[in-house]
Amino acid sequence: MTTTTEDEQQHEEYDSKRHAGLYGAQRVKAMSAVLLALLLSVLDYAIANVALPLIAVDLHASSSRAIWVVNAYQLANLSCLLPLASLGARVGFGRLSQFGIFLFLIASVACALSQNLLELTLARALQGVGGACIMSVNIALVRFIYPHNELGRGIALNGLFVGIGVALGPTLGSLILSVATWPWIFWINLPLALAALALAHAALPQTPRSDIPTDVVGSLLTVASFALTGVGLDGLMHADFVSGAAVTAAGVLCWAMLLHYQRERLEPIVPVDLLARRPFLLACLVGFLGFVASNLYIVAMPFTLATAFHRGAGTIGLLIAPWAVGVATMSFVVSRLADRFPASVLSSIGLFITASGFCLLWFLPTDAGNWDIAWRTLFAGCGFGLFQPPNNRAIMVTAPPGREGGASGMLSVARLAGQTTGALLVAALFTIFPHPAFICLGAAMTVALTGSILSLGRKYLAA
């Protein structure tokens, strides 16, 4: 028996035939294809971080330049999510996911064969586009695989595999680098990508397609808006004020042009029609704040452990791992709750627990033991795992039938934009303060608490 309130139920829009879902073996095979493609995308992003020092040495690049191996992937991914989500609604979500897996495979080969940093950065950008093809339609496919009254389970399972990918990435990367050179972190993608491609071709469902023509101009403006704004803000956060301000201004101009151009579009690339719906907008804002908080923690915590707690590189990885374990475990537990309880309850509690975990870490003395750090990290991760699935479900069910692609794209944009903003804030705090380790934890706690309060009030704000 559901405990979702009538006020929240009226905001859920679905078509009983369109969203009837799959059952039995069909559902298992289709969801396996979605999760394998998702794991491919998340795992490779996490693995690449571990290899950055070796890549910098081998390709004779500075550490600051080598970071673009990660930035190129994330920026290309973020810039292309919304245009590709729109394209997926036209060509079919399953077909776009298959193309993304194929592109990811080709880009992985290019990464492994790269002879200099420029080649590797460009190949990683191409890999980011492939990842965007997968991520932009990932939740949209789940919307068609699970019936409406079980959608929370599918989204929670999706979150579980994200957590598994994040947890496995650094460990698998370290194992590969202990016996092989850094190109093997990309060669390892080939068997996984081939298996994902075969399963996706055989099992992904045929989804309804929009007959509205592709908006090429809107797509190009969207990519330029995200890319220029991201590069410009990165420059500003690293105190490169002249070029950073100029590129950011160009990005803002592109945004103004894009929003003006899209006002009269029936299905705009940037889904302003969906964002005009308060329940959808609030869910996206809560998701954004959650991921800002998580990346303020994830990016800064290795430095905090090294400089404040004086832990070595091997120990740092083990002390951060409980976060991913907590996220993955709670995502599995909440799968049976997300369809019964409203996001205004579950997600609010989840972000409050996350903020409490950050607060407990913030007040730790610098001579604290490993267990004291680990259980607090696990506690914060469990809160984040409780927050994600209900909020993601709220984003999808408040979008009307026919706009699943735009909703799925915005869900991924909220996540990536939050992660990017969190990383930029860490860079800014490290630039401003000489000893910012605990300041980042305090900022993460504040943002998570703000997200919890916003989530708790969504029922009243959406009225």
TrEMBL record:
Task: Give the Major facilitator superfamily (MFS) profile domain ranges.
Answer: 30-460
* Ranges annotated as spanning the membrane: 33-55, 67-87, 99-118, 124-146, 155-178, 184-204, 216-235, 241-259, 280-300, 312-333, 345-364, 370-387, 408-430, 436-457
Which PROSITE patterns does the protein's record reference? MFS
Give the domain of life.
Bacteria
Quote the Gene3D superfamilies the UniProt record gives. Answer: MFS general substrate transporter like domains, Multidrug resistance protein D
Q: How does it sit in the membrane?
A: Multi-pass membrane protein
Which compartment or compartments is the protein found in?
A: Cell membrane
Q: Does the keyword Cytoplasm apply?
A: no
Q: Does the keyword DNA repair apply?
A: no
Which InterPro entries does this UniProt record tie to the protein?
Answer: MFS, MFS_dom, MFS_trans_sf
Principal subcellular localization: membrane
Keywords linked to the UniProt accession: Cell membrane, Membrane, Transmembrane, Transmembrane helix, Transport
Q: CDD domains attached here?
A: MFS_MMR_MDR_like
| Official protein name in the record | MFS transporter
Naturally occurring in which organism (per UniProt): Gluconobacter cadivus
